């Protein structure tokens, strides 16, 4: 009986020790992640504000439209972070056009380097891209994609964040308003009516 009790006690101690190690590792990873925060946003088309995500019901981009992103990397901890690498990964059907702070551009990947960020400090980067042409997205209908960004410091602290937006491949080129007063059509109609009036006057 004593041997069984002793064995069970040993097993319980081993189990609690392993659980403590796993929990410590989990909390340690969480603490590392919280030291640096990445916030990725996309600009609302036709406006000045940025949002975390744009659903298809809010706004859609079409072929050849410009898309602007804002990427913010912040040190949310209490210690200075050094030698931070920042990456941005453009999704398919989006082509790079420009970036701030002399980024390094390789294919679909953009990269910046930050020497250090003191506690509470942040750094902002801006990216401009363009939706692919109509031939490239032809037949894809209405679809949504995500632009991901990641930051990693030499200390191991890292974080990533993405911003989703939607493309309507059913519309080629600039979006056409579904409703509203069409000035050109009205002008053409007025010209036709005016011409018809003059013709009637001459006939009379």
Automatic annotation (TrEMBL):
Stretches assigned to the DUF11 domain:
55-153
For this UniProt record, the keywords arranged alphabetically read as follows: Membrane, Signal, Transmembrane, Transmembrane helix
Q: Where are the transmembrane segments?
A: 179-200
Alphabetized InterPro entries for the sequence: DUF11_rpt, OmcB-like_DUF11
Signal peptide stretch:
1-24
| Keyword Repeat on entry | no
NCBIfam families, alphabetized = B_ant_repeat
Protein name in the entry: DUF11 domain-containing protein
Q: Which organism is it from?
A: Candidatus Shapirobacteria bacterium CG09_land_8_20_14_0_10_49_15
């Amino acid at each position: 009986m004593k041997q069984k009790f002793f064995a069970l006690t040993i097993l319980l101690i081993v189990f609690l020790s392993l659980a403590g190690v796993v929990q410590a590792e989990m909390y340690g990873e969480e603490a590392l992640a919280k030291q640096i925060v990445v916030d990725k946003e996309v600009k609302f088309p036709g406006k000045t504000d940025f949002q975390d995500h744009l659903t298809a019901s809010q706004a859609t981009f079409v072929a050849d439209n410009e898309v602007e992103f804002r990427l913010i990397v912040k040190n949310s901890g209490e210690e200075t972070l050094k030698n931070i690498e920042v990456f941005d990964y453009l999704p398919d059907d989006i082509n790079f056009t420009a970036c701030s702070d002399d980024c390094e551009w390789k294919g679909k990947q953009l990269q910046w380097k930050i020497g250090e960020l003191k506690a509470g400090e942040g750094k902002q980067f801006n990216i401009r891209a363009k939706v692919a042409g109509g031939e490239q997205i032809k037949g894809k209908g209405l679809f949504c994609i995500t632009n991901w960004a990641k930051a990693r410091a030499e200390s191991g602290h890292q974080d990533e964040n993405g911003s989703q937006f939607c493309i309507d491949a059913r519309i080629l080129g600039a979006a056409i308003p579904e409703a509203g007063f069409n000035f050109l059509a009205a002008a053409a109609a007025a010209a036709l009516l005016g011409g018809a009036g003059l013709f009637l006057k001459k006939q009379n």
